[in-house]
Structure formats: C-alpha cells, structure tokens
Amino acid sequence: MRSFAARTAAFSASPIREMVLQSSQMAKRGIDVVLLHQGEPDFPTPPNIIAAAKDALDSGDTKYVPAEGSRELKEAIQEKLRHENGISNVTSSEILVTNGAKLALFVAVQALIDAGDEVLGVVPYFGPYRDVVTCAGGRFVTARLVPSSDRFELDRDQFRASITRRTKAFLVNTPQNPSGTVWARGDLEYVADLAEQHDCYILADEVYEKILFDGRVHHSIASLSPDIRRRTVLVNSFSKTYSMTGWRLGYAMANSALVKAMADLHHASGRCATAFVQKAGIAALTGSQAAIAAMVTEYQARRDIVQQALSATADVQLHSIEGTFYAFPDISQHGVGSAKLAAEILKSAHVAVVPGEFFGDDAHIRISFATSMERLVEGMERIQRFFERGR
Ligand code: PLP
Hints:
Aspartate Aminotransferase, domain 2; 391 residues; 2 domains; 41% helix
C-alpha cells in the first residue's frame, strides 16, 4: 500500500498518552498509581450547566447550527469579553465557536500559515502547539521563558532576535501550561509592540485565565489597543474553567475576515460545535460563577501543598506557581533526562508525571494537581521519598 501523507509523520508521540497507557496497565496488575499527569480538572461540571444541556436535548437542540456558532452563545461570549477582558464592541462576526480551544487554534493556524512560515512561541510550551504548526507546513520556533529569581520571565532579547522574515505569528499562552506562570503585562506589551513592528499576528491561548492564585490578574493581549486586537486571535475554552473537558467547547475572537476564513475551515471539518453543548455554554457564561471560585480556592490549597513538598525535596528546584494547576520543577540536578526520570518515578514511586521534553524543556517534569487533595498528598510524599532515596 502507498504511504500516508508526510504530515502524519510529523506528529510527536504524546508522553501523556503513554503515561495513561502504562499507568492503566500497572493498575490492572493491582498497583496503586497516583495520577499526577493529566491536565483535566477532577471536579464535576457544575449542575446548572448539566441542567441546561438536558433541557436543550429535551427541547430538540439536536441539529446542525451555523459553523460560526449559535447567535445566543456568541452574544454571551461578546458580553464576557467586554466585562471580563476589557474588549468592547466585539461583533458577532468576530467570534467563532469550536469544538474546544485546540480546534480553534488548529483552524487559526491553518488559516494563517503557509509552508515555511514561522510561528514564534516560548519554551516551555504546550506540546501540541508544535504539531498544529507543523501540520500546516509551518515551523514552530521558540525563544525562552527563563527562571528569574523565583518566577519564569520572557527573555525579551531572545524573543526579538528569533523573529525572521518568515515569522507570521507569535504564540502567547497565559497563564501558561506547563510553567504555571502568568505573563507580566510588560512582557505582553513588549510582544505586542514587536507584532506591530514586524506585522505579525498573535495567537493568544487564554484557557487558564480564571485559574489564578494570590490575587493575580490576567491580561488579555487583545485588550492592549485596537491595532493589537485586529492582529490577535484570542482562544479560550470551557474545558478548564468550567470543568467541561469532555464537552468539547471553545471559541476564538479575531477580526471578521480572519473569522470568515477560520469558519470555512471549521465548516469543512468539524462543521459546528454540538448544538445542545452550546446551550450549556450559555448557562456556563451567564449563570452563577460560585463553583469556579470554589474550584480555584481548592487549586490554590493544592498548589500550596505541592510547593511545600517540592521546596523540601532534594535535587529539585521550584519557582512560584502563579496560575493553572501545574508545577514544573527543575530536576536537572538529578542528572538524568526528563523522560528517563518520569519513567523511574512511575516504576519505583508509582506516580505518573509528564517529562518536560514534551514541553520542549528536558530539565523539568510537569506535576498536575488536578486531583483530590488526598491523592495529591500521597503522590507528593512518594515523589519526596523517591528523590531522597536517589541521593
Ligand atoms: N491550550 C492549553 C494551554 C491547554 O493546556 C489545553 C489542554 O490541556 C488546551 C489548550 C486544550 O483545550 P480544549 O480542551 O478546549 O481543546
């Protein structure tokens, strides 16, 4: 048989899927594995959202809706962008509702990137970014977020120096998976200025915007100026904020011409986000936000446990975790690469974590605290003992 398209070979194997496989095989053998690898909230979806989906099903919301998204959900998103993100007068034609943020990013990159174009992001990065860009025939180029005192900061000079004639877009993810860093407003302004100087688009992934600790504030880069807004594709999702990963609902805001191009791609692939799920999305945005506040309070308590445990652990360095539900400790002093270390932690401590290599950074591992406090405490104790033994 003839071979598959070359683009299929460009996809990198996901160590997260590998971890899921290995830990479920261990569980089948009766081994108690603590799962700290998944980027999935462990909370149930709030009941008002579930009720709205059930009502929608009972009312027959089971047909196609426009590829751009239902008018009512787009209105709720426009209002949310105005009062939460400081982005006013967003029109319906500037919104695209998708099956999750990943698809929004995918169609944005497909709409913007020709073969050989570059997208400039930063290390560490959410692993799938590379695949999304490569799949469009582009190159994912990276500068670095560098540890400075106890937080990660943008290496501005390196970012600027990484821009070439082929750079078509910047990719900014704040709060950031996996570092847990919330980009400083000054860094966003710096990148926004460069986008104007070099006529680049900005892909802004804001799916963790609500998971912030210690009173930190999220800034949407699109809110900085009208010109930056025209250049930005703001991507967001219901997955993390509302614990709705399996519902597959996300959206993008961009200028109308770009949304039209993205909607054509969406129509040709996913067709539209599920009709009754869009009704649930309206309930999520317009209903009580109390459940979100409760989840974030719990994430912060877990963050404290993880920080305490890791700062008392030999051979591990941790910067502060400002948002998301991830810790990204530096394990380079341990002397083995991240993949080998994650495999050893799974094998001997029975804890599943993700090698930093997946995020372009072999000196770290990612520990997720989207799991119950009880399991998290158990997992962190095992990790501490693992490092103590290795001394
Ligand atoms: N962006 C980032 C930074 C993520 O960490 C994730 C999920 O882990 C996504 C996007 C995907 O979001 P969605 O479930 O809406 O596709």
